[in-house]
Design goal:
Oligomer: single chain
Strand content: 15-25%
Number of helices: 11
Length: 297
């Protein structure tokens, strides 16, 4: 899965020309003279220039590297690029080409790998510098998803939690046992809610899909990704090390948004430093990936 937060729609009603035999990817390059129309550089980081998007993170190389870490970590944990009946839904059909839309495609890693795996399907990736966790009105998004999907089409959603935590059976409270981590994400999430109108948590999104009249056979799952090298399993230790590095990149990527909120540079640096140092000293931290797949009614 390509991003901290992806929604993939299979069997689109209006996904392009089904009779087309071309499966070659299409990429439109931005000319050098047009770059200022799409991107702004601030404090040596590159941001999208769309004035109304709530997405606060950069769109440059370090951020793309973080998205790749997330993709690789989750793929390794679940052993595939997808959950649910994707193989069945994308089975080759000579009478109807299968179409897949990847909303918020990020750096495109997921959609490119899936296109290589399912060569008879046609894949589309859409991204304007925002991801699902930064959509203010997810209910309206689900309405649009339902409009696009054929009956029987598949919704596959992957959303990352907005706060680190501990494994449920540990009975540890994040605010008490990792206060700097709690404070960092609490600060970020309050700014997102107050400034951008983004307040839904990933668990809330799963509940919205479950309760939606648009979908049947809803299946939800939580994947616990270790943060750090605390796990006894060598594979999970390697995953945790990579994911912790990605969380450090995430913290730095939020720096501009924190500054824009009115925090001083000293306050922002302390917030980020305390969080990143705590990830090295506190064992048992995890990030939860909430995976949902459902059939269009």
């Amino acid at each position: 899965m390509s991003t901290p937060e992806d929604t993939h729609l299979d069997n689109l009603e209006n996904g392009g020309d089904e009779s087309s035999n071309s499966s070659s990817p299409s990429v439109e390059s931005v000319r050098d003279e047009d770059v200022p129309r799409y991107f702004d550089e601030r404090n040596n980081r590159l941001y999208h220039s769309h004035p109304h998007s709530p997405y606060p993170l950069p769109v440059d190389t370090p951020e793309q590297e973080r998205l790749t870490v997330n993709h690789n970590v989750l793929k390794r944990l679940i052993g595939a690029n997808h959950r649910g009946p994707v193989d069945t839904v994308l089975t080759s059909n000579p009478d109807r080409r299968r179409n897949v839309l990847d909303l918020c495609t990020g750096n495109g890693k997921w959609v490119l790998e899936m296109a290589g795996q399912f060569g008879d399907a046609q894949f589309f990736g859409v991204d304007i510098g925002m991801f699902i966790d930064y959509v203010p009105d997810y209910r309206s998004l689900l309405d649009e998803v339902a409009r696009l999907l054929r009956p029987g089409g598949l919704l596959l959603s992957v959303e990352w939690s907005k706060q680190l935590s501990f494994l449920p059976d540990s009975n540890l409270d994040i605010e008490e046992h990792a206060p700097a981590t709690f404070h960092f994400f609490d600060t970020v999430n309050h700014i997102l809610a107050d400034t951008h109108g983004v307040s839904l948590d990933s668990a809330d999104i799963q509940l919205l899909v479950t309760n939606s009249a648009h979908f049947l056979n809803v299946t939800t799952e939580q994947i616990y990704v270790p943060v750090g090298i605390w796990h006894e399993n060598d594979v999970l230790t390697t995953i945790g090390s990579s994911f912790r590095a990605g969380q450090k990149k995430l913290a730095v990527s939020f720096k501009q948004m924190l500054l824009d909120s009115g925090m001083s540079a000293e306050e922002v640096d302390a917030l980020i430093t305390d969080f990143t140092e705590e990830m090295h000293s506190v064992e048992g931290l995890v990030m939860v990936a909430h995976i949902t797949h459902a059939e269009r009614a």
